[in-house]
Write a structure and sequence with these properties.
With 302 residues, this protein is of the alpha+beta class. The protein has 6 helices and 16 strands.
Length: 302
Amino acid sequence: MKDTGTERRPGERAGTEVVQLFALTPAGPRALAVPAGARHAHELFDGLPLLVYSALRTFQHERFLGLEYHLERTDRSLELLGRRERLDRARLRAALDRCVRAYPGADAFVRFDVLAEPARALGTEERTLLALSPFVPVPEAYRRTGVGVGIAALSRTDPLIKKARFVLERRPYPLGSQEAYEHLIVDAQGRILEGTSSNFVALVDGELRLTGDEALQGVTQRIVAELARGLGLAVVRRPVRREELGSVTEAFLTGSTRGILSVVAVEGVPIGSGRPGPWTGRLAQAYDEHAQRAARPALEHP
C-alpha cells in the first residue's frame, strides 16, 4: 500500500489546509487536538505507541477504492504480529464515512491506525485513530513524462506486516524532485522489493513482474494485476533484480494515493526508452476508469 504519495513535493500546495485527528469511540469519532502547524496526517502519530496502519485517498470526496482490502490487510498484520484484537469494521466504516463527508477539502488523504497502547498522551483511552489531511495529487508533469527513482539503504523486517514505525524509518528518504521522486528497497540478493511508499512493477520480456511475499503487498498493485490480466498481459510474481534493469522495457510505481506513476530512470540510468511506455499508459487509463467506476462510500446510503 502502499500509501503516502501525498506528502507535499516542491512547488505543490494543498487547496485547503485542514488536518484532522479522531479517536474512534463507541459513540462515534471524537475530535482530538492537532498540533499547530501540522500539514499532513502522518505528523499526527509522532510519539504515539505505533503498531499497524493503513493509508488511502478519497475519490469524489467520500468514496474509497479497495477499502475492504485495506481492512483485510490491517487485520492480517495484527494476526501476524500475534495480536488478538481485530478492527471493529462497522465502527471504522461509520467513522470514515462521517469524517470524509464532513471534510472541507475536495478529497482527503486518510490514515487509520491501531496503536499498541491507548493514546493517553492525546487524552483518550482509545487505540484506533483516524487522521485526515488534504489530498495532493501527483503533478501532471510527473505523470506525463515519468519520474526517476533512487535506491534506499533500508530493509523491512516482516514485510507482510504494515508496521506504522516504518513511516518514521523512511523519513531520511523523502519524496522529492521529479528526478528522485521515490527510493527503492533492494535486498542482499539484488532483488528490487518495493519503494519506501509504493510497489515497483516492471515489464520484462512481455511479462508484468510483481513482488511476492518478499515485500508488502499493496492494494493498488493487487488491483493493477487484475486489470493487467484483463488486458491480456501475463503477470508473474517474481521481483526484478537490479542487474536485470537493462532488460526492463517499462516500469512504474503503484500506490493507493498515487495510482500508477511511470518510472523512467533508476539511479539516473534510463528504463527502456526513458519515457513512459504504452503498457503503462494503458494500465494507468484502465486504473483511472476503474477507480471512477468502482470507488464506493465506506457506508452505502439510500
